[in-house]
Amino acid sequence: MSNMVNTKTGDITGFSDLGIKETILKVIANLGLTTPTPIQHQAIPAALSGQDIVGIAQTGTGKTFAFGIPMLQRLALVKGRGLVLLPTRELAGQVENSLGKLGGPLGLRTVSLIGGEAIGRQIFGLRRRPHILVATPGRLIDHIKRGTVRLDDISVLVLDEADMMFDMGFAPQIEEVLKTVPANRQTLLFSATMPTAVMKLAERHLRTPMRVEVSPAGSTAELVEQEIFILPRDNRYDQVITLLGEYQSSVLIFVRTKHGATKLAKKLQQANYKAAEIHSNLSFAQRQASLAGFRSGQHRILVATDVAARGLDINDIELVLNYDLPDNSEDYVHRIGRTARAGKKGKAISFAAPDQRRDIMKIEQLIRKSLPVRNIKSGFATQFARGNKTLQPAQAVAAKPYKKFDRPVREERRNRRQRPGTISEKGKDNTPFVFEAPRRVNKTEGNYSSLGFRKRPSNIDVLATPDYLQPSGKTSTRREYKPSTPAGGMPVPVMTNPEFDGGNRFAFRRKMFKLKEEAKGHSRRAAGAYKQKSATKPAAFRAEAPTRTRSASSHGAHVRSFKGRA
Q1: How confident is the model at residue 331 (pLDDT cuts 50, 70, 90)?
Q2: pLDDT tens, 364-419?
Q3: Which 3 state secondary structure label does DSSP give 439?
Q4: What is the pLDDT of residue 58?
Q5: Largest alpha-carbon pair distance within the chain?
Q6: Chain centre to alpha carbon of residue 413
Q7: Is the pLDDT of residue 144 over 90?
Q8: What stretch of H or E contains 332?
């Protein structure tokens, strides 16, 4: 972003020096806020001047008030509404709560448009003409398509956690919203990291934005004490129990999968620990209940997937434990950002297997620091060599002998099960021709319709296909018949035909076709003879022929009645 301007951090003063109106200062004072955070100190004056902003700050640094205070002050003076887009329902609920505390005393109403809630209730809230919309991209697009919300009066647009929205695949919805809102709006974009997709979005849709960066992208909070534990995966649960004995306050445990979260939470509950789980398989109400119980102290342990890694404003979390390393190194920053909030210290411990050295290096490159590593003695490495490609074991472990299992080598493709053969006719020496059950060959050309059939033919129909309908000698959908040896062990005579390769089967088909044609001819001759014989009978005799009439009886039986006879 060549057109962006970087600001320098000066001496942080009170909110009164940032250009905030007196009415809003009273609300801020009533909330117990006295000193702005670094991101608030830099972003609020720039936003009050009407500039577009790109803010880079980690979670827990006060970003909500950094964009909330300027937006409320502008909406109180200028006609229009504000729109805040967030990636998850949990984030939307927290932002709505914070903006409600700020805007409520000023008479500014807020409504949330998120998935998992009844859309009818949201439509009722929209009819009250709220001043601020807090929405997730998917549900907002639903309302736009329904015609229940219009964005032509949006004067302030906020994109919070923009990098997470792109990671979750909301890029098309964001682009659609940006095309719907007015072009003369003010846009405030906040993100913990600045990937290429977010930078390109800012270049396309923001007007000479000011870049506000209180800490380098990917940096972690200075008050978080971080440590890596190297241990085998099978020993992780035992180490969790050990750490729960050392830390007596709230513990947030992150796992990679939803199944893993459920499994670990149940094991902790069976061990008489007050544990809850939160992941996307739970309904919104269940997730809210888990968060409420964790905030109130009803649950001491919360096992979560990355759905809870961002924006969860939960104070007094003593330990963040990464039971599994995240797939994305940036998620590590968001995970450990749940502790050491509001100027308090915190601890972050991550479990890693000996073969995850590369993942640890990626995290260190992102946060620009080396992490202390402790090796848990369990037969694995006693020291973690960063310069080597592999972990050096403490003592050589005898390799298990490799057992090679003998497997049969298939020289040919295995045929289908053998079926009873078909005896066609007898040769000159009274030996029957026996043909094996057909084996289907590869379909490389043609189909059953090319053989003159409207449906899948039976075996006899395939055999009776005339010569002029036979495809060339290439592989087709026809079935292949091979002669076999009869039960007596005598060789089977083979009918050959020099015109075809493997002429035995073609000769047999021609034979069967000839027999069918002869049978048809016999039927036609017999029918013609019957007609000729009937035509020679006297007319009186034909009139006296019996006729069938339907009886009027209830059961509908057929009876014969003879007419014309005395």
Answers
A1: confident
A2: 988 888 999 998 864 343 344 444 333 333 333 333 444 444 444 444 455 555 44
A3: strand
A4: 74
A5: 132
A6: 38
A7: yes
A8: helix 329-336
Residue among 125, 122, 117, 60 at smallest CA distance from 94: 60
CB atoms within 10 A of CB 98: 17
What's phi and psi for 321, nearest 5 deg?
-115, 120
Q: Which of 196, 193, 190 is nearest to 216 (CA)?
A: 193
What three-state secondary structure class fits 64? helix
The neighbouring-strand residues paired with 159 are 85, 189
Determine if residue 323 is left, alpha or beta; phi over 0 gives left, psi from -120 to 50 gives alpha, anything else beta. alpha
- pTM, to two decimals: 0.59
Q: What angle do CA 209, 210, 215 make, to 5 degrees?
A: 130
pLDDT in tens, 239-249: 999 999 999 89
How far is CA 84 from each of CA 173, 370, 447, rounded to the nearest angstrom? 14, 37, 60
- Is residue 11 helix, strand or coil? coil
312-332 average pLDDT score: 87
Mean pLDDT of the 184-212 span: 91
Identify the helix (H) or strand (E) that includes residue 318.
strand 317-322
Q: Which amino acid is at 115?
A: G
Across 496-509, average pLDDT: 56
Burial of residue 128, with CB atoms counted within 10 A of its CB: 0-12 exposed, 13-18 middle, 19 or more buried: exposed
Q: How far apart are CA 329 and CA 360, in angstroms?
A: 9
β-bridge mates for residue 374, sequence order: 229
Rounded CA gap, 337 and 340, in Å? 7
Torsion sign over Cα 115, 118, 119, 125: negative
Q: If you average pLDDT over residues 291-311, what whole number do you get?
A: 85
CB 422: neighbour CB atoms within 10 A?
Answer: 17
Residues in the chain: 566
Give me the amino acid identity at 74. R
**Of residues 307, 305, 304, 280, the one with CA closest to residue 294:** 304
Structure tokens at 198: 């977010």
> DSSP secondary-structure letter at 483?
B
Strand partners, 46: none
| Reduced DSSP (H G I as helix, E B as strand, rest coil) percent helix, strand, coil of the chain, to 5 | 40, 15, 45
- Helix axis angle, 196-205 relative to 171-180, nearest 10°? 10
The full set of domains in the chain, from first to last, is: 5-213 (3.40.50.300), 224-375 (3.40.50.300), 417-566 (no CATH)
